[in-house]
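User: Run a structure prediction on this.
Assistant: Running it now.
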Amino acid sequence: METNIFRMKSRPTTLANKDFVSIGGAITKYTNTMERGLEEQAIGIPVPGEDPTDSKLRAVDVLEAAPCIKIGSTDTLPLVYFHDGIQRTQFVGNVFSEPIKRLVPIMFTTVGAIVVHLDGEHVRQYLDPIIIERFITPEKSLLPKEIADSIPPDFLHELPGFVATTHPNEFRKRMFEDVVKRLRQDTEHKIIKAFEARNPDDWLVIDGPLRDIAPVEKRVGIVKRHVSYLLDGDLMFDVLKDFVANSGTRVRSCKFKVTYKTAHAKEILACYSKLLYNFKSGIVNNPEFSLIRVETAYKHAAEFDKILNMVLAMNSPMSKPSDSWDKKIYPIYQAELFLKANAKDDKLIRTAFGGFDFA
């Protein structure tokens, strides 16, 4: 099948490396970063892919009596298209703001999305990745003029409302909610719509929950991060106990239906399961090691076990660990590599902003 067939061309959404380094040079005249690592980690901001924490926005109905069930059938539903996204936000530094006599922060964020195609044993890029870069600052009138003039308008997002009494963490949280989260949602929705236009009848596997995706026919969500379990605490306790007791065998939790009470209210069929790794039983016996939640629209209940079997057959290579590596399937891991290859790497960012390292 033809790959990389749908190219979305528009004005640039990423800075040329030389321009990026030039901006870094202007900023580092006034500040050097004092923190290491990504903002998502530094202040505990949830990233897309985590479960919703507000139970008032959902209703959960358990569909089976047994907490845990061995998967007997080996039937699979062919899944060949996979979606992934990235979100990386870095604190660049604080600069003196003469108008308000305070330090104001400068952030740099990268968001992106891609769809890949599983072609036999190979994962190929299917849609060109969308990568968006933005510097996020308070109103540029609060910045030193050299910095304000160095960032092209298309790559600057001003977040108004920063005053002398604004707490830095308040600004950071607003930045994620009002800018970064929306940028990522818009980017992921854009590439999913492009896929739908090209492949209206094909399944698409999404790295993350389905609740923020507009209702569509054929979608599978894989949730790796679990802020809160959707099942009752006692029931989830029994599920995890059974997972450990059955280490090395394919098991799943009871199926359950989740109805989200949001703008796109819909019914989701889901279960918990574990990707299996044939090494170090002490690690595999960790109840949360390789724990994922797989979900699809409730209308596809008849296909659910086939979907789950296909997902469980796609363990990511153990020789190349990455963030949440124990919960990643191979095509989505490869999609992540494609995205990273198209985003600015750590070495360039360190060069531009004073040589800081990531945690």
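Residues 1-9, 42-47 have pLDDT under 50 and may be disordered.
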